[in-house]
Amino acid sequence: MIKIEDYYPRATFQKMKAFADQHETPFVVIDTETISKAYDDLRGSFEFAKIYYAVKANPAVEIIDLLKDKGSSFDIASIYELDKVMSRGVGPERISYGNTIKKSKDIRYFFEKGVRLFATDSEADLRNIAKAAPGSKVYVRILTEGSTTADWPLSRKFGCQTDMAMDLLILARQLGLEPYGISFHVGSQQRDISVWDAAIAKVKVIFERLKEEDGIVLKMINMGGGFPANYIAKTNDLETYAAEIIRFLKEDFGDELPEIILEPGRSLIANAGILVSEVVLVSRKSRTAVERWVYADVGKFSGLIETMDEAIKFPIWTEKKGEMEEVVIAGPTCDSADIMYENYRYGLPLNLAAGDRLYWLSTGAYTTSYSAVEFNGFPPLKAYYI
């Protein structure tokens, strides 16, 4: 049985549950004080770094406003995120266009709004940036290892090999852009801290070779995200991550570090959220079936897409007590893919019944932003910020 104390201070959980008791499921309730503390903890652990919040994790204006007021910058992936963030009073100097896959007209839109920092990982995209955002700073995303130790790997779609990264930065200078730095992402919910070591070592090689062979002095490393949230599989605490990563940086770059950018999403806001759902049905597939199926009023299409391939294992708590039994947990839609956990067997009380509530912990990130608009007619996941 999940222990609340392993995931939330008792007072925080009681505040969130008291609020939740007044509302009809399904919804996610997010505690903004928890986000504020997570930001302060990250800021304190990496005092020298700039923080660019990854808006895709949760684009709520309540979160944007909170982080803006605390001094955060923002990692933006589309013109729609850009418009939302700038409408909250964020200046273009606090924005990075971090998506390497973008239309030329969107690059121009960012440029016209005043943004001057762009990610890239291909020649075609780089040439688009040179035409639509002349003179801008560019940083190249490289491929990294770590897909086997990250719960939500990100490497395959984005980034390029080291040799290509250097070619792109040389070309950037020829095209009138400023070759500014290198970025990488070791994978979301990365449990193996050592993968940062290998990635930083790759970056060091690029820095040195470009300086020695081509006279290009890079100024920035964007280390992306990857810091963990508090799910079922335990990880080291942030202080351990920070101490090790800073050690890796100083081993390669000494005390004169380049500009360091972090792009947290999950680690800032996941722990602040509780998704509250209701059991719709409990059934068995035959008279002799050992396992029960528990159907909730949320599923993959209403905020829990990260259960795909059972990648993210959210802690689930219920008020019901008593003997436990392993179950399959599925969503309410008419889609056979809408099964959250079948191989990893959660234990839930035998007396769990329709109408009981399930509390999905650490669900502040990648739930509302992944929720479908109207699949089977179900509305998007409601969200409350307290």
Topology diagram in text:
Layout: H1 10-20, E1 27-30, H2 32-45, E2 50-54, H3 61-69, E3 73-76, H4 79-87, E4 95-97, H5 104-112, E5 117-120, H6 123-132, E6 137-141, E7 150-152, H7 162-174, E8 178-183, E9 188-190, H8 194-214, E10 220-222, H9 238-253, E11 259-262, H10 266-269, E12 273-283, E13 292-296, E14 316-317, E15 324-330, E16 339-349, E17 357-361, E18 382-385
Parallel strand pairs: 1-18, 2-3, 2-11, 3-4, 5-6, 6-8, 8-10, 10-11, 13-15
Antiparallel strand pairs: 1-12, 7-9, 12-13, 12-17, 14-17, 15-16
Tell me what you see in this structure.
The protein is α/β, with parallel strands linked by helices. The chain has two domains: 32-269, Alanine racemase (TIM Barrel); 270-385, Beta Barrel (Lyase, Ornithine Decarboxylase, Chain A, domain 1), CATH 2.40.37.10. The chain has ten helices and 18 strands. Strands 1, 12, 13, 14, 15, 16, 17 and 18 form an eight-stranded mixed sheet that branches. β15 and β16 form a beta hairpin. The protein starts with 9 loop residues before the first helix and ends with a strand.
